[in-house]
Structures are given as structure tokens and as C-alpha cells.
Write a structure and sequence with these properties.
Layout: H1 2-32, H2 34-37, E1 40-43, E2 47-52, H3 56-62, H4 66-100, H5 125-149, E3 154-162, E4 165-173, H6 175-180, H7 183-213, E5 215-217, E6 226-227, H8 232-236, E7 243-247, E8 250-251, H9 254-262, E9 270-276, E10 282-288, E11 290-291, H10 292-298, H11 303-307, E12 318-319, E13 322-323, H12 330-336, H13 347-360, H14 364-367, H15 375-379, E14 381-383, H16 387-417, H17 426-449, H18 456-483
Antiparallel strand pairs: 1-2, 2-3, 3-4, 5-14, 6-13, 7-8, 7-9, 9-10, 11-12
Helix pairs in contact: 4-5, 4-7, 4-18, 5-7, 5-16, 7-12, 7-16, 7-17, 17-18
Length: 487
């Protein structure tokens, strides 16, 4: 625990020093009038709020089909209310899990707790900053479109910056018009930002699927991603990312070819495997096969679970000692998920699996240490014959793959973070207006049935109190989940 705290303290010292330097620079610019010339101001001491009128003309033009954008706002509202419910449930479950089963893993460093490109080692500066800027513009443009669709004016667009790093963006409305707007219109405006991020993530996923269709593999032979310690493969010298060329002289093509060949052998048999290592050299290994059934029993699997596998795992099944047998397109197929042309499932399964896949993509940078694909996975890819592959080549296609992955990742992060039902997030404003509407319906029902009488001012008072208390409770739960690993 001391080592973890020492690392955190060292990280925070550097971060605080940089923030202090930025604060001094802002104060100098403020006194010299530089911020006034930039139409900028300092908020929260160290955050630079830069305003711009650029984009307002485009906003008015795009917002002209107001009926369309009002329908879009209504769809966005229902998507956000549904998602906000699950975000709140997720936070509550994480809080309860932290109490009942405190984490024992090494706590993250201070830099890993902030989603700032370059500062967080899992979010690369280049891809992260580019994706954050685009996603922030998308978010605020969504707010702006619904504001204009309902007749509310936008004073300016802008960015919130901490040094050169973008922390957020804003569409600055006429606040009197915003507060006087009907509750439903205001809710649509708040929902449009995070909903547009979620829709943009779906578009990015579809584009990744299109790119997956333009990428194939340079080798038909499967490769291994991991080796089980002390297994036959480990003892024979098989290494992660080795490509399996032949087994006992039989050419191995794809995962199906590997599995078909292995069904011919039993535990304790010895096979001769020709492999190509990551560095391009070839080798021939003799591997003694273990018992797959016993291996999974040792991992804690029950006999019933093993029997229900397809095909069932039975005593004597051969086990090489590798995990993650994959084909050469595994990297791009993992990112594209249900939109990949090689996804094994029909249209219904693709639709059902899509939301789970999008959420699962959030852990990719943490699993891959800040990248979307392992370099070996990229090296196994090549462009298919066609207009796009010929025009862009492998370099151009991989550039787009990385760009759309990070744009999808950041849009998911911004969309769902803003749906936390806690002020000042959009979810906090949505929750307050939703609660006000619910209490008003209860008040009208009581008036109609003459069972109870509620004063309108009581509704506003309760909704404000409930919003403040829920925001405070969620903030405490969030801080608890973040801090508990250090104790």
C-alpha cells in the first residue's frame, strides 16, 4: 500500500505543478487583456473558456427542418432516459460491490484516474485529443440543434481547456430563454448532446465494419495469443503470437482447421508442430498434449458446464496449452464486432449484440495498454482488392481504423458520462426536469380525483431538493469507488 500511495503522490506532484504553472499563465494573460481579445475567460481558477461565433451560421442552416429535429429530440430523450437509468443502476451496483468485496488489485495511478489524452497512459495524446475535439463538437452541436429547433438562441460555441488539453465544450444559450422554455423542450435539448454521442458511436461502429470488409489476412494459418504456464506448449517453447503452420505435417488453415486436426488426438499424445515466430523465424516443436477436461476442472469449472459445451469437453480430450487461437483478421474483427462481414450470426443476433459490443469496447485500451490492436495483429492484415483498398493501401486503412475506433470510444465515454444523473452533467438536468414532470402528473391526478392537494411551489421545491440530494449521494458513491482501492 505504501508503494501505491508513493506513486500516486509523485504523479499528483507533477500534475499540480503543471496546473500551477498554467494558473500563473492565465493570470498574466488576464491582466494583459489577452483573454479579452480572445473572447475568453477563466473559470474555476484554472480552466480556460474560449468562446467563438464560428459555426452559428452553419447551426442555423442545419436546424431549418425544425420538425425533423424535434422528432430527433424526442427519440434522443427516450434513449437518454433509458440509458440514464442503467448508468445510475451501474453506479449503485459498483458502490455496493466495493463495500461487500473491496478490490485487492493494485490501485490505478493518479494519471489513470483522469480521462485526459496524453496524461492518462491508456489514452494516446494524438488519437485521444483528435477524437475528444471531434466528439465534443458533436456533443455541443447536438445541444445547439435542438435549442434552435425550439426557437432558443445560441450566443456562442466554445472549448474548455486545461493547458493545451480539451476538457470539454459548450454551446452557450440565452439562459433566460432556456429557463423559460417548456420543460419537454428543455429536456430534449439536454438529451440531444449525449444522444448524439451515442448515435455517432454507432455510426463509427458501422464504418469499422465497412473497413473490416476491405481488410483480409496475409496468412491462412492461425496464431496463438497466449500460452498456459507449465503446459505442453510452454515446455516445448511455443510463444505468444506464434503462427501454427503444420501439425504432424498437415497444413493448418484457420481456427476450424486447428480444431478439426486436434480432434484426432488424445491426452498424452505427442505432436510435431511447425511454427513461425513473431520475428519471422521458423521452428519445429514437439508438444505433449494434456487433458483438457482436467485442465478446466482445475480452473473451477463444473462437470455440468463442461458437458454443456459445444462440443462437450470429456475426459481425455487433447489440450495443447494455448489460449486465444485466432485468425489473422482477429484484430479488426474484434473492433468491428457484429458489423464485421466475418461475424458468425444473423441480423437479429447482430442487432442484439451491438449494444453489448459497444460497451465492451470501453475496456480495449486498458487490455491493449493504450492501443486498439496489437502490432502483430496489424502486421497480419492486408487490403482486399477494390477501390478503397487500392486507393488507401494498408497504411490508410489502418489510419481510419484507429481514428474511428478512438472516435467511437470517446463518444461512448462522453455520452454515458454525461448521463450520470448528477448536476452539472446533462443527466442531472434531465433527472430534475423528469422528476418535476412526474410530480406535476401526481399533483394533477390528486386534483382530478380530489384525493390529495399539492401546491405547485411544493413540486418545484421537492424536485430541487431531490436533485441536489441525489447528486450529492452519487458524488459520494463515485468518490468511494475511486478511493477505496487505496485502502
Amino acid at each position: 500500500m505504501d508503494g501505491a500511495w508513493g506513486s500516486v503522490e509523485a504523479d499528483w506532484k507533477v500534475i499540480l505543478l503543471l496546473i500551477l504553472a498554467w494558473y500563473v499563465l492565465l493570470r498574466v494573460w488576464e491582466k494583459n487583456g489577452v483573454l479579452d481579445r480572445w473572447n475568453a475567460s477563466r473559470v474555476f481558477g484554472v480552466v480556460l473558456m474560449v468562446r467563438s461565433s464560428k459555426g452559428l451560421t452553419t447551426l442555423d442552416y442545419v436546424a431549418k427542418p425544425r420538425r425533423f429535429w424535434r422528432i430527433y429530440g424526442e427519440v434522443s430523450l427516450w434513449v437518454c432516459l433509458f440509458s440514464m437509468f442503467f448508468v445510475a443502476i451501474g453506479m449503485l451496483l459498483a458502490f455496493v460491490a466495493s463495500i461487500l468485496s473491496p478490490p485487492t488489485a493494485t490501485p490505478p495511478s493518479a494519471s489513470e484516474l483522469v480521462a485526459i489524452p496524453g496524461l492518462n497512459p491508456m489514452i494516446p495524446l494524438g488519437w485521444g485529443a483528435m477524437a475528444f475535439i471531434v466528439a465534443l463538437v458533436i456533443h455541443e452541436f447536438g445541444h445547439g440543434l435542438l435549442a434552435r429547433a425550439h426557437g432558443m438562441r445560441i450566443r456562442a460555441f466554445g472549448l474548455l481547456q486545461l493547458g493545451p488539453l480539451p476538457l470539454g465544450a459548450f454551446a452557450e444559450p440565452q439562459y433566460q430563454e432556456l429557463h423559460k422554455a417548456p420543460r419537454k423542450e428543455r429536456m430534449r435539448m439536454f438529451a440531444a448532446g449525449p444522444a448524439t454521442n451515442i448515435f455517432a458511436a454507432l455510426v463509427c461502429l458501422l464504418l469499422l465494419g465497412g473497413l473490416a470488409a476491405n481488410l483480409t489476412t496475409t496468412s491462412v494459418n492461425p496464431h496463438v495469443q497466449g500460452i498456459v504456464k507449465d503446459s505442453g506448449a510452454d515446455q516445448a517453447g511455443l510463444e505468444p503470437w506464434d503462427t501454427i503452420l503444420r501439425i504432424n505435417g498437415t497444413e493448418i488453415e484457420g481456427i476450424d482447421g486447428f480444431q478439426s486436426e486436434m480432434r484426432q488426438y488424445r491426452a498424452n499424445d505427442t505432436i510435431v508442430v511447425d511454427v513461425m515466430h513473431e520475428n519471422g523465424s521458423s521452428d519445429t516443436l514437439e508438444i505433449t498434449l494434456a487433458d483438457k477436461y482436467q485442465y478446466y476442472l482445475d480452473l473451477g469449472w463444473t462437470e455440468e458446464i463442461l458437458e454443456n459445451q459445444n462440443p462437450p469437453i470429456v475426459p481425455g480430450d487433447a489440450f495443447v496449452g494455448v489460449v486465444g487461437i485466432s485468425e489473422g483478421t482477429q484484430g479488426i474483427d474484434r473492433l468491428a464486432g457484429p458489423t464485421s462481414p466475418r461475424f458468425d450470426g444473423g441480423i437479429v443476433l447482430r442487432i442484439v449484440y451491438t449494444p453489448f459490443h459497444i460497451l465492451n469496447m470501453m475496456i480495449v485500451p486498458f487490455e491493449m495498454q493504450g492501443i486498439s490492436m496489437h502490432p502483430m495483429e496489424e502486421a497480419m492484415l492486408s487490403p482486399t482488392e477494390g477501390i478503397l483498398g487500392d486507393a488507401l493501401g494498408i497504411g490508410g486503412l489502418l489510419f481510419l481504423v484507429n481514428f474511428f475506433f478512438w472516435l467511437m470510444w470517446v463518444n461512448i465515454l462522453l455520452g454515458f458520462t454525461n448521463l450520470i444523473p448528477m448536476v452539472p452533467f446533462d443527466g442531472g438536468h434531465l433527472f430534475k426536469d423528469w422528476l418535476t414532470g412526474t410530480l406535476n402528473r401526481i399533483r394533477r391526478l390528486g386534483k382530478k380525483t380530489r384525493l390529495w392537494k399539492i401546491h405547485p411551489m411544493w413540486v418545484d421545491h421537492i424536485s430541487r431538493k431531490a436533485s441536489s440530494m441525489s447528486s450529492l449521494a452519487l458524488l459520494m458513491m463515485l468518490l468511494f469507488v475511486l478511493i477505496i482501492p487505496y485502502f
